[in-house]
Amino acid sequence: MARDGDVPTIFNPKRVRTPSVIITSEEVAESVQSGDGERERPNGPPTPLSQRAPLTPQTSVSSAPPLTTQPSLQQAYSESAGSSQDEERQLRDKKCPRSCCSKVAKKIYYGLCVTTTVFASWVTVTHCIKYMYLQKYPHTDSSLSSTESPINNNYTSRIRTHHYYNAPFFTAWFCTNWLIFFYPLYLIFMLIHNKCKSANAIFADAFTDFKDKGFTFARFLSRCGLFCLLWVVTIYMYTYALKILLSTDVVALFATNVSCVYLLSWVILHEQFVGVRIVAAILCDTGIALLAYMDGITGSSTLGGVVLAACAAAGFAIFKVLFRKVMGDVSTGQRALFFSILGIVNATLLWPVCLALYLTGTEQLPAHRMPWLPLLLASGALLAFHLVFQFGNLMTYNIFVSLGLITAVPISAALDVVLYGVEFEGMKLAGIILITVGFFLVMFPDNWPDYIMRLLRWSRRRQRGADGAGRSRDTVDYRTGYIRSHLRSPSGRVR
């Protein structure tokens, strides 16, 4: 029996050929009915006395069952051509794994796009919120003085910055509301990408997966409520820190969340212990301490702002680790559904807090001229940041997603220098550098010593090759076996 992919030729006489003409049972019956005395052989030529019916594709070729399992010549040729193309493709991938068209190269290209999106959106969020705090929003009526309020009540005496935006909790609540668009955007993408499934089927799959994990409706909503509270408190501390510190300081302090994520994962999720990451956590803490005392201790609110930014980084790390601990391994649809429900819970339950803070005078909103443009821009950029941050690992490596946080530090510093004339020097510059170094140390892989050993071996091998090429090789004395030995003399005697 022929093997798959072999082409039957005259050089393989033992292989069965597919006959060009096949006699069906209908033709044999017609020949018997016509009165022929002699029968035709099944596959042989007809006798001169027999009258064969004309062969048609419907009666002879299409309806006849094959007499052998050997593929036809055209099918065998197509299979062999397809297998040869696959082998050539695999060989080409092996020869040039680092070409611009390989899968690794495409992941790197996607990773660069993801990193750019992460740091661009994060810098946009930070500077838009900082701009709202610094900008003054005077009343359009010039008859009112800058310190008067058109509404006289018991709270106006305590409001001295009525023409400034001072509402960090409202900012956090408003930006969190945009998380509602997580699942609709995911649903639109899935409907475009996979047209075989309906929206109801995709929606039911996400809920079915949560139900299979043992989540009831009440339990799921309670978990969403706790995570929503943690999320809003984290964003609130970040926005409040922007009221006190510069944008670059807050961005750098928030980047320390990677060291907090590792420490919590080591304790709670029992991940592998890596010593260099402990050193990275120490460096990040040292950088935080330098930023805390860069303006002194007394008479400055810098210490409070640094504590708020560091707590925001720790809160974001707690959110990530607890999500993995409580929810487990979730699919993309489950993650999108969870964040949408988190936004719905935030919009439904926390709006009375915003109203209470405004009525008590704790937060001031310039109602006559609300900064809607920077607020909407910050909310949209925060939504884009979290979309890429949560789903970026589907397109590229996870390290490119994390690199966006630390790449935002020099971009934000450049904007601070250009817009506000900030000078980075002394303890502030040292603290940012230590945080950056600690961030990159946390990004080291678990088996980083293996990579260092490979690098050392490669450098030694290259150095030996250069030394061997620089000097001519000594002639080998086959009589004494002398090959530049330190133990034997040129005569062969032991030294």
UniProtKB/TrEMBL annotation:
User: Which stretches does UniProt call biased (Polar residues)?
Assistant: 56-84
PANTHER family cross-referenced by the UniProt entry? SUGAR PHOSPHATE TRANSPORTER DOMAIN-CONTAINING PROTEIN (PTHR19346)
Q: What keywords appear on the UniProt entry?
A: Membrane, Transmembrane, Transmembrane helix
Extract the ranges annotated as region (Disordered). Answer: 1-90
The record lists the organism as Euphydryas editha
- Could you identify this protein by its name? Thiamine transporter SLC35F3
* Membrane-spanning segments: 108-133, 170-192, 220-238, 250-269, 276-294, 300-323, 335-359, 371-389, 396-420, 426-444
Name the InterPro entries on file. Answer: Solute_c_fam_35_mem_F3/F4
Taxonomically, which superkingdom? Eukaryota
